[in-house]
Amino acid sequence: MTEKQPIFILPESTERTMGKDAQRNNILAAKIVAEAIKTTLGPKGMDKMLVDSIGNITVTNDGVTILEQMEIEHPAAKMMVEIAKTQEEEVGDGTTTAVMLAGKLLENAEKLLDMKIHPTVITKGYNLASEKAKQFLKELSVEVTPDKEDVLRFIAMTAMTGKGAESVKEKFSNIIVESIKQVQESGNVNLENIKIIKNKSESVEDTELIKGIIIDKERVSIDMPQEVENPKIALISEALELKNPEGEAKISVTSPEQLQEFINREELVLKQLVEKIKNSGAKVIFCQKGIDDVVQYYLAKENIYACRRISKSDMESLARATGGKIISNLNELSEFELGKARIVEEIRKGEEAMTYIKGCENPKALTILIHGGSEHVMDEIERALKDGLGDVSAVIKNKKIVGGAGAIEIELSKRLKEFANTLSGREQLAVQEFANALESIPNALAENAGLDPIDVLTELKSRHDNGEKYAGINILNNRIENSLDNGIIEPTKIKMQALSSATEVAIMILRIDDVLSSKSGGGQAPVGTGMGYPGME
Ligand code: ADP
Ligand code: MG
């Protein structure tokens, strides 16, 4: 081995950025992501139009949707997208806030890096600030009991302000609160029990809450009634067919009479299935598997409405909505297992037909049927509705609220600055920068509404200094008001999650001082062999 032999520890195709460069690159990428969605924040936020490679268009104001659909390559930027997703999964709203906060934390960290403050000091200070901020957030939260429906409606409206549902947000807030109250079970809300279905037609104002389920199946035979009033409903998970003999069982018949007898016997068995259904009192059946033609024929004769091949999840929704029990064996069927609805009907729109199960008595699963003129409109309405549903269910579970419109951010910032003054050393600077970052939220709310952010922030801060801890900037009338009084209310949980996830990703990005990327994709440095030393066999 010659002395000058180069040592490759990584494949040649690897790109590597180290130290300061890596850090600055990452921060820049994260800042760009935050900047991209900043203009969508708040009631006067603008929408983004996203066009994919085949020309599909999405018009949205929703942070996570924008980020998910942007083709993001940079690893640090991807980490920012991840926090938006986490925020969306955990609480269903507050994604723009979380990402903007992370971007601002990193931007401010850069200032500290310029002052030669080591990243570990910054991350330590940020962690400290985040913990403190969460503690203040708890102290500033107000209890709300689930029976305070007006508060819940305000929460839903705050979530939808500025989204596609703006013009109908009052009606929608009623739908949201009613549906959540209906499906909640001792403070637990499973949003999967609120199905959202879109119906292209009429106007958004016709959007309705259906106390029941809509399934995309038609009745199996047109000889069945198209509409049944006050039916008892059977939910059956087994096939209403003859059980096929496994394998190649041969049946030998020697005469036409024998064959006829065999057919008759089969028919009799099938007829008996229908007899059992009829005797139970069911007028509608939903079957998870197939229904034999002969069974269909006799069901129709009995004026029973039937759908087949219903998905398992729809069967479960049907059970929750109608109060029926899914049975796997017809012998178990009695009137006690049956569900109820005010009406079951097939509604045909063009080519498609769907079955509506409406007017269930105390449904634990229900449907919001969105009406709207176009797919784009309905999609954006759906996102707004989901934000509202997420926020209201968060409050039902967690029972804590804070004032929005920047009020909570300004108050947290103020308290953190006071806390920073009790610290010594360089961590103090990091806590201060954390506090400054929080101001970016009211700042953007004002800026997006065409207000002067400096004026607004100065006024807000002085009001908070005077003890008005819920003073926020109401963008609908451009006045500084008590956010709890004027109904700009948000769940504490959303702010809590935004603080956590923003801090987490900012710290993660700050700790990186080396970025390695292998262009070839497959080429990784061998592990455990002392790495690759070319020329050494
Ligand atoms: P996110 O994705 O973070 O939820 P949004 O675009 O939904 O972003 O905006 C949420 C912000 O808008 C919150 O800070 C909320 O308090 C604020 N907001 C909602 N309604 C008003 C209002 N009428 N005036 C001022 N701010 C408002
Ligand atoms: Mg929101």
What does this structure look like?
This protein has helices at residues 19-38, 63-69, 75-90, 95-114, 119-140, 149-160, 169-183, 256-280, 293-301, 312-322, 375-398, 407-421, 427-438, 440-448, 453-465, 492-510; strands at residues 14-18, 48-51, 57-60, 142-143, 194-200, 208-210, 213-215, 227-229, 232-236, 284-287, 305-307, 326-327, 339-340, 343-349, 352-358, 366-372, 400-403, 471-474, 479-482, 489-491, 514-518. It contains 16 helices and 21 strands. Helix 3 runs antiparallel to helix 16 (492-510), helix 4 packs parallel to helix 16 (492-510) and helix 6 (149-160) crosses helix 11 (375-398). The protein has three domains: 23-143 and 402-510, Orthogonal Bundle (GROEL, domain 1), CATH 1.10.560; 149-211 and 369-397, 2-Layer Sandwich (GROEL, domain 2); 213-362, GroEL (3-Layer(bba) Sandwich). The strands form seven sheets. Strands 9, 10, 11, 12 and 13 form a five-stranded mixed beta sheet that branches. The protein is an alpha+beta fold and 537 residues long. It is elongated and about 100 Å long. The protein binds adenosine-5'-diphosphate and magnesium ion. Adenosine-5'-diphosphate binds at residues 40-43, 45, 63, 93-97, 158, 161-162, 404-405, 441, 445, 473-476, 488, 490.
